[in-house]
């Protein structure tokens, strides 16, 4: 299955070097682009290249927002993981510019252990809910972090509408499978489609967000358009992108990362500075845009809201 000896998820992490390479490349591209434009292209040509994300109006502020300095829009939209578009952190921004194909309506299925299952067009799905801005700290398992002003609504609002029954112990989320649009899916990097899961009480927690935008505008393809999950006390990979299915289930879902490497990626994946990844420490993180590393906080600093969910659990065992 894997044609490389070293699997993509086994590449040793050195996020600082990685980020410096990205910064240098960006500066280089910026200079070349500016020179090119001054030489030949009229400035308008640039604006026509990609469709601009639409801004949201009437977005309320949330008491759950951090007042820490926000990461710049540029970094949030050009440095991230979305393996369906390639395994480097620059790939999603390069390969997801036309995603999702606007000629195909985006549909989301809600099914499984509930009384009101359904299939919704994206527009109809989000219509009943009040959008708010939630500025969250986000911590990637690889050791970098950002502060992102998401736009969205609590996942619980949607789940309650579907009326889960007493068998609904977990919620399973699935990303679109479409190798035509997602070139990364043409290779067996992960067992596609990408799947994630939450325990039902985690899914119902008021911090858990379904996001449709950031920095006041619709999500770009690379950030998981049109709708994705945001769980700020867990490592970034729990925030599954471009969701097409939300299913109530009785058994703990097998997530894409557990299938790839169960020893390294557990179901819970709560941010925990005391539990190292088998190949690197999780004690510190590099906030994108800052030079010195900072200490990683238990539950990414959201312990007051979520620590109760794990009372009595051995978090070294349930990592
Ligand atoms: N479908 C899908 N969702 C995904 C990923 C992915 O590869 N595929 N990567 C995850 C990882 S590892 C991180 S850190 C975040 C990064 O994207 P963001 O900055 O937009 O949250 O997306 C998560 N969601
Ligand atoms: Mo990540």
TrEMBL record:
Binds 1 Mo-molybdopterin (Mo-MPT) cofactor per subunit. It comes from Methylophaga aminisulfidivorans MP. One of its GO terms (molecular function) is metal ion binding. Mo-molybdopterin binds at residues 80, 83-84, 140, 175, 223, 228, 239-241. Predicted to be exported by the Tat system. The position of the signal peptide cleavage has not been experimentally proven. The keyword Phosphoprotein does not apply. PROSITE patterns: TAT. It comes from the Bacteria. Its EC number is 1.8.5.-. The keyword Metal-binding applies. It is an enzyme of class 1 (oxidoreductase). Keywords: Metal-binding, Molybdenum, Oxidoreductase, Signal. Belongs to the MsrP family. Residues 102-257 form the Oxidoreductase molybdopterin-binding domain. Part of the MsrPQ system that repairs oxidized periplasmic proteins containing methionine sulfoxide residues (Met-O), using respiratory chain electrons. Thus protects these proteins from oxidative-stress damage caused by reactive species of oxygen and chlorine generated by the host defense mechanisms. MsrPQ is essential for the maintenance of envelope integrity under bleach stress, rescuing a wide series of structurally unrelated periplasmic proteins from methionine oxidation. Heterodimer of a catalytic subunit (MsrP) and a heme-binding subunit (MsrQ). Its cofactor is Mo-molybdopterin. It catalyses: L-methionyl-[protein] + a quinone + H2O = L-methionyl-(S)-S-oxide-[protein] + a quinol; L-methionyl-[protein] + a quinone + H2O = L-methionyl-(R)-S-oxide-[protein] + a quinol. This is Protein-methionine-sulfoxide reductase catalytic subunit MsrP. One of its GO terms (biological process) is protein repair. The lineage of its organism: Bacteria, Pseudomonadati, Pseudomonadota, Gammaproteobacteria, Thiotrichales.
């Amino acid at each position: 299955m894997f044609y490389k000896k070293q699997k993509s998820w086994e590449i040793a992490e050195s996020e600082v070097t990685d980020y410096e390479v990205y910064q240098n490349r960006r500066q280089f591209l910026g200079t070349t682009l500016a020179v090119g434009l001054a030489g030949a292209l009229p400035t308008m040509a640039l604006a026509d290249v990609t469709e601009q994300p639409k801004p949201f109006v009437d977005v309320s502020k949330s008491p759950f927002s951090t007042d820490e300095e926000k990461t710049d829009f540029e970094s949030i939209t050009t440095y991230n993981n979305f393996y369906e578009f390639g395994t480097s952190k620059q790939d999603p921004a390069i390969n997801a510019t036309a995603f999702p194909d606007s000629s195909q309506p985006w549909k989301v299925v809600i099914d499984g252990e509930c009384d009101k299952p359904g299939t919704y067009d994206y527009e109809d799905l989000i219509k009943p809910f009040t959008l708010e801005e939630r500025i969250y700290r986000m911590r990637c398992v690889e050791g970098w972090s950002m502060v992102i002003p998401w736009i969205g609504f609590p996942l619980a609002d949607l789940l309650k509408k579907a009326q889960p029954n007493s068998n609904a112990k977990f919620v399973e989320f699935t990303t679109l499978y479409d190798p035509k649009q997602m070139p990364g899916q043409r290779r067996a990097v992960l067992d596609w489609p990408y799947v994630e899961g939450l325990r039902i009480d985690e899914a119902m927690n008021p911090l858990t967000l379904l996001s449709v935008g950031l920095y006041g505008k619709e999500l770009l393809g690379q950030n998981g358009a049109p709708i994705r999950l945001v769980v700020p006390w867990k490592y970034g990979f729990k925030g599954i992108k471009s969701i097409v299915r939300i299913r109530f289930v009785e058994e703990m879902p097998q997530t894409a990362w557990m299938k790839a490497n169960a020893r390294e990626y557990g179901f819970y994946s709560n941010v925990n500075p005391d539990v190292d990844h088998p190949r690197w420490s999780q004690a510190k993180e590099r906030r994108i845009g800052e030079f010195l590393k900072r200490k990683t906080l238990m539950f990414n600093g959201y312990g007051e809201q979520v620590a109760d969910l794990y009372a009595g659990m051995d978090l070294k065992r349930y990592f």
